[in-house]
Automatic annotation (TrEMBL):
Residues 41-223 form the Phosphoribulokinase/uridine kinase domain. One of its GO terms (biological process) is UMP salvage. Pathway: Pyrimidine metabolism; CTP biosynthesis via salvage pathway; CTP from cytidine: step 1/3; Pyrimidine metabolism; UMP biosynthesis via salvage pathway; UMP from uridine: step 1/1. This is Uridine kinase. It comes from the Eukaryota. Keywords: ATP-binding, Kinase, Nucleotide-binding, Transferase. Residues 275-467 form the Phosphoribosyltransferase domain. GO terms for molecular function: ATP binding; cytidine kinase activity; uridine kinase activity. It comes from Coniophora puteana (strain RWD-64-598) (Brown rot fungus). It catalyses: cytidine + ATP = CMP + ADP + H(+); uridine + ATP = UMP + ADP + H(+). Signal peptide: none annotated. Transmembrane segments: none annotated. InterPro entries: P-loop_NTPase, PRK/URK, PRTase-like, PRTase_dom, Uridine_kinase-like. It holds the Pfam family UPRTase.
């Protein structure tokens, strides 16, 4: 699959900030749960209209099948203007080409967060109105970040963040012609205004501040006819990305759970529903392949409610006195939580959502899409849609999250989902993983070791996680294409092997939705 543009984050005509997605984001962490590789950051500087954005897109196009790429424009980080400066800007008499016009600390902070695999929220700037908008745009999940702007190499703090520094060299007449065409068409300026601003501010700034930064560049790229330079850069990036690969899914399948206690070794935070006759009866119905769909859905919803109610016991509460209808005072308790939400690992986590909304009627629910790479068997993060209380880091610190998935087999999807929440600032002890089944010999013990403060609430523990060939696969016949619902118990190793929980409940997402 080639790269495609997911969303343009600048709402105004100059759409420079973009997220480009391909086959998903592979693990950026090790078996201990800690980050082992940063995002690869490229800084591209050059004169106004030299072709920086075009070069960035050419690099992405040359890379082919790569994980998510973010192109981040320095133009989004212009300082907010006071009324006097705002008036001058509309008269083309404000110097937007001086380094002081850029909020360098904010630009560096956003870039630093993205490089460290965290989320950030970038400002939205209107060139037509010469001001920042009140809202910001959320960014997360890039393996490659390209930061471009005339001052991209000017600030030492920014230069320290780059893994590769590029300067786009272009003829001044060509830059002026491009600038006139762009500003008249996209930013509503007059030719006279563009020329006045160019001669007064743009050209002096290029000579004094922009051109001198070319000495910091690792490579200087022509502003046109630059295919050879682009291919050299793409080859270097591909080599760097290959060296940062993390693969450990198969090693997660051989860590047993203590059969006496029903808990993972060294995992006091695995909570299993008490196996009452009612719970055993529900699992008997759900495991039976002859159960009709309407009955399967009914009992899944019922079991999901039991699990969420059990998970609710692990939230903080405070004492509260209330007056009853007869005028008496009763001592009780209420939730002591600022923000609580659910995050479902699509799509097998979906069957748990109704149980969550039955218990917490106004809860916000987000989602993650994690699928297996058919070549390596490793998980790939394809989609992130999180509630506001997680996207905003100052809210995430106090948020509690119910993480929903049908089962934990190898645990690779669960591992990636937990790491994603931690990247957003959610506290480890504020994550409660809710699931129908856990494999005794699966990856739950690896999860426990990496994230010892995450609680896992499950309905039952299955004894076997069996390694097998995918249906229809014949050894030596070549790679298989993984079919079925994402997030189920099937996972592949190099497109050949799968792990199946026994006795299991089958493809829970398929049985629930199809």
């Amino acid at each position: 699959m080639g790269l495609f543009e997911d969303e343009a984050y600048d709402q105004w005509p100059s759409k420079k900030n973009t997220v480009l997605k391909s086959h998903g984001r592979p693990p950026w962490y090790g078996q201990d749960g800690k980050r082992i590789s940063d995002a690869f950051v490229i800084g591209i500087a050059g004169g106004s209209a030299s072709g920086k954005t075009h070069v960035a897109r050419q690099i992405v196009r040359s890379l082919g099948n790569v994980p998510t790429v973010i192109i981040l424009s320095q133009d989004s980080f212009y300082n907010e203007l006071d009324p006097e400066q705002h008036a001058l800007a509309h008269q083309n008499r404000f110097d937007f080409d001086h380094p002081s016009s850029i909020d360098m600390p904010m630009f560096a902070a956003c870039l630093s967060d993205l490089k460290a695999c965290k989320q950030t929220n970038i400002p939205i700037y209107s060139f037509t109105h010469h001001q920042r908008l009140k809202e910001t745009k959320y960014l997360y999940g890039a393996s490659i970040i390209i930061a471009e702007g005339i001052m991209a190499l000017q600030d030492p703090g920014l230069r320290d963040l780059y893994d590769l520094k590029v300067f786009v060299q272009c003829d001044s007449d060509l830059m002026l012609a491009r600038r006139i065409q762009r500003d008249v068409k996209e930013r509503g300026r007059s030719v006279e205004g563009v020329l006045e601003q160019y001669l007064r501010y743009v050209k002096p700034a290029f000579d004094n501040f922009v051109q001198p930064t070319s000495k910091y560049a690792d490579i200087v790229v022509p502003g046109s006819n630059n295919s050879v330079a682009i291919e050299l850069i793409a080859t270097h990036i591909r080599r760097q990305m290959t060296g940062r690969a993390s693969r450990f899914r198969k090693s997660m399948t051989c860590k047993p759970i203590d059969p006496e206690s029903g808990s993972a070794v060294h995992h006091p935070n695995l909570i299993v529903l008490k196996q009452t006759p009612q719970v055993k009866g529900i699992y008997t119905i759900l495991r039976d392949q002859t159960t009709k769909k309407q009955d399967f859905v009914f009992f899944v919803d019922r079991l999901a409610t039991f699990l969420i109610e059990k998970a609710m016991e692990h939230l903080p509460y405070r004492r509260k006195a209330v007056e009853t209808p007869i005028g008496a005072v009763a001592e009780g308790s209420e939730l002591d939580v600022k923000n609580i939400c659910g995050v479902s690992i699509l799509r097998s986590g979906g069957p748990l959502e109704k149980g969550l909304t039955r218990v917490l009627s106004d809860v916000r629910v987000g989602s993650l899409l994690v699928q297996s790479d058919v070549k390596t068997g490793e998980p790939l993060l394809l989609h992130v849609m999180l509630p506001v209380c997680v996207r905003e880091r100052h809210l995430a610190e106090d948020a509690w999250v119910f993480l929903l998935d049908a089962q934990i087999g190898t645990g690779a999807s669960a591992f990636m989902a937990i790491r994603t929440l931690l990247d957003h600032g959610v506290r480890e002890e504020h994550i409660i993983f809710v699931t129908f089944l856990v494999a005794r010999s699966g990856g739950v013990a690896v999860l426990a070791r990496a994230f010892p403060r995450v609680r896992i609430v499950c309905g039952a523990v299955d004894d076997v996680l069996r390694e097998t060939w995918l249906d229809g696969y014949e050894p030596g016949a070549g790679p298989e294409v993984l079919a079925g619902a994402p997030g189920t118990e099937l996972s592949v190793d190099a497109g050949r092997k799968a792990w199946i929980m026994e006795p299991g409940m089958g493809q829970i997402g398929d049985r629930y939705y199809l």
